[in-house]
Amino acid sequence: MKILFAALLSICLSVSAQFFLKAGMSSAVAKSFSENPLSARSILELATNMHIVTGFALYGVGAIVWLSVLAQWDVSKAYPMVGLGFALTAGIGLMLGEQMTLFRLVGVSMICIGVAMVGHS
After folding, report:
1. Which parts of the chain span the membrane according to its record (predicted)?
2. Residue 27 scores a pLDDT above 80
3. Domain boundaries of the chain, sorted by first residue
4. 71 or 83, greater pLDDT
């Protein structure tokens, strides 16, 4: 049960990282970066954007937690659990006002079914 918690924690950290990175890239500085990607000033501003820094930090911590999962589970069992991140991301995105089409909902449901099947194997 402890390793399952570690896997879920790692997935939650990765999902959180995505939303922090999205917030950072939605800023005015990030939009100017997409217009002038080679500007030293815009690269520095992105590198010091707290949302982006937090996102990368969460990814780093999630990767460290994931190492403990890989130490105890087969990769073929552990990695499909990452698919749960799709469902969590879609659910949080929906709560934040993102659009959820029926086609996307069916796709996310299929991923969850696949994860459940791998988990029971």
Report:
1. 48-71, 78-96, 102-119
2. no
3. 2-119
4. 71
